[in-house]
Design goal:
The model has no long low-confidence stretch (mean pLDDT about 95). The chain is an alpha+beta fold and about 70 residues long. It has a single domain (about 5-65), classed as Nuclear Transport Factor 2, Chain: A, CATH 3.10.450. Helices cover about 25% and strands about 50% of the residues. The chain has 2 helices and 4 strands; from the N terminus they run H-E-E-E-E-H. Strands 1-2-3-4 form a 4-stranded antiparallel sheet.
Amino acid sequence: MDNKYIEEFTRDWELLNDEGNTQLWQYFDQLDWKHMYAIKIGGSVKSVFDSEYGNPHLIFNVVVKCL
């Protein structure tokens, strides 16, 4: 996901969790027309997913432990 996509097709970004330089965000994707989650590391989006993959907080905790 690049900055142009973020600016044009997403809205309502909300920080859900923050561990060091790793953050879990929820946002609304206007093309998919659903809430999505993003993991940012150092301010850059590294992964996006929806709740079909499981609890976003558990996924975030796994990512933090792997870093």
